[in-house]
Amino acid sequence: MTVVHDNLEDTEAKMRAHDVNVFYGSKQAIDSVSIDIPQKYVTAFIGPSGCGKSTFLRCLNRMNDTIPAARVEGEITLDGENIYDPKLDVVQLRARVGMVFQKPNPFPKSIYENIAYGPKIHGFAEGKDELDAIVEKSLRRAGLWEEVKDRLTDSGTALSGGQQQRLCIARAIAVDPEVILMDEPCSALDPIATAKIEELIADLSGRYAIVIVTHSMQQAARVSQRTAFFHLGKMVEYGRTSDIFTNPLEQRTQDYITGRYG
Fold first, then answer.
1. What is the rounded distance in angstroms from the CA atom of residue 175 to the CA atom of residue 75?
2. Which ranges carry the ABC transporter domain (predicted)?
3. Nearest of 88, 251, 114, 233 to residue 173 by alpha carbon
4. Contacts of 74 (CB under 8 A, 6+ apart)
5. pLDDT tens digit string along 103-118?
6. Rounded to whole angstroms, how far apart are CA atoms 81 and 93?
7. Phi, psi (degrees; rounded to nearest 5) at 192
8. Digit-coded pLDDT (tens) for 192-228
9. Percent of the chain at pLDDT above 70?
10. Which of 25, 85, 254, 256 is 20 to 30 A from 170 via CA?
């Protein structure tokens, strides 16, 4: 049974998950998770390794479809539309619900082409001038423009790890998504690069619904307004981040945030 704090009524839900179960073959990885993802805020998923938080995150843009043994049950909606409807275009869904992975994964193309690729295939730009504008705007939003504007033809893979991760965020926002999913985006980065990503998340919040999986409770406390605690495939507790960290209602949440396990 999930404990949901009762002071969340001020938020409009962008996505809703109801009674979601995920199986890998016969093994159940997610057990009856229901959550509303708010429109305006950053939502953090926390919990020990292997608790299901990344698996659940991948349900939100159907990345688990790429795993042959995975099976997802339950309902997840985006603006009221069931994202698991067989008639739904998954490519369009992933444009609306972008994803940034744990390890930066720029395409083996130029910095410019990394950003331009999505807008080109989705038909967002008519001509090079529009494409140039999208590339610049996306890189500016990702806090990367000043660092790379004179070397847009260089390979994206030649950037530092932190710059590559901001490039991947710029690539995600270039197709004008509504939701951005981030799966431990700072785990491979040094503290300075991590701080830049956290500043970027703060800048982007309010413009997009953002969901971040993080192993760092300090990071969750810094960047998010809502926090869900996962344990053994279940969502144990969900509420305002300040309440989860200062006044959790579940003993398991209290034990985790005070370092008794995890």
1. 25
2. 15-257
3. 114
4. 17, 18, 19, 20, 21, 32, 33
5. 999 999 999 999 999 9
6. 11
7. -70, -45
8. 999 999 999 999 998 999 999 999 999 999 999 999 9
9. 99
10. 85
